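pipeline stage [seq->struct] | target=AhpD family alkylhydroperoxidase | organism=Micromonospora luteifusca | residues=154
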Amino acid sequence: MIIEPRIQNPASLLPDAVKAINLLYKAAHSAGVPDSTLELVHLRASQINGCSACVDAGARGARKAGETEERLYAVAVWRETPYFTEAERAALALAEAATRLADRADAVSDDVWAEAARHFDEKELAAIVLWVATTNFFNRINAATRQPAPQTWG
């Protein structure tokens, strides 16, 4: 089944939004967190939210950042695979907790935060949190307006 968008992507309808989105992207990617880690975080949050457009973009971005197919296939089950570093695992756990806010009273537990803080300094933590929030922003826009993943068949 092909999903038809309800409207064009809101960012294309409101050009000032593109400026703000670009600033968020630049800020999150300027703190020293490896691009591949940010791409994994984006992909995992998008998987949780069921955003096909962002899962597609996240996988493509991760490949551009040097990710292997093996690791990309395993993002959804990162806890059960040996493919991710401790820092990446901490970032993925933080991304999951910050995406699933309603799942528990203390959405981002002290344990999740402390583990992330073991691997990332304050500026890097800020970038990860900003990138997770931005990803969730994209996911919600795409879900509300039914933005599909691009059709790229051969």
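stage status: PASS
auto-comment: The chain has eight helices and no strands. The chain has a mean pLDDT of 92.
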